[in-house]
Design brief:
Layout lengths: L4 H4 L1 H16 L4 H16 L4 H9 L3 H8 L14 H10 L11 H10 L4 H11 L1 H6 L5
Helix pairs in contact: 2-3, 2-7, 3-5, 3-6, 4-5
């Protein structure tokens, strides 16, 4: 069996995603971009049940799926979805000493994400996760 493309091109796909995210976020460095992406994924993960996180990771490029589940305490109960403003503040508080993401970070990461996922699988997953997840990632109605 050959190595699936999802894994054999993981680094190139992640680099391309970070370039797009950096453009959307208008951050100065790759490290600043990464912090915004990391915070956005972690804040979203905090709102999901374990199986939902696994399902969402499955529709992401390999490295983004790995980031989603990194440093995860699966015993932590899901938090409720809050206003975009409150969740943005939470994203900015993740590794806050290193996080210089703009207040548009969630929308910026979502816009970049849509260019690097299978749009049908991504939206179907978000639909199963519910309207709050769809709103978080800017899913079409």
């Amino acid at each position: 069996m050959t190595v699936p493309m999802r894994y054999s091109r993981a680094t190139e796909e992640f680099d391309a995603f970070l370039r797009d995210a950096q453009i959307h976020m208008d951050t100065a460095t790759r490290h600043q971009t990464y912090q915004g992406v990391y915070g956005t994924l972690i804040v979203f993960r905090r709102r999901l049940m374990v199986q939902q996180v696994i399902d969402f990771a499955a529709v992401l490029p390999a490295v983004l799926g790995a980031i989603l589940v990194s440093d995860w305490d699966t015993r932590e109960p899901p938090r409720p979805f809050e206003s975009r403003e409150a969740m943005t503040s939470e994203v900015l508080a993740v590794r806050q000493d290193h996080n210089l993401a703009p207040r548009s970070v969630i929308s910026d990461v979502a816009a970049a994400m849509r260019g690097h996922v299978d749009p049908i699988a991504f939206d179907q997953c978000l639909q199963r996760l519910g309207p709050d997840s769809m709103a978080f990632w800017g899913a079409p109605d």
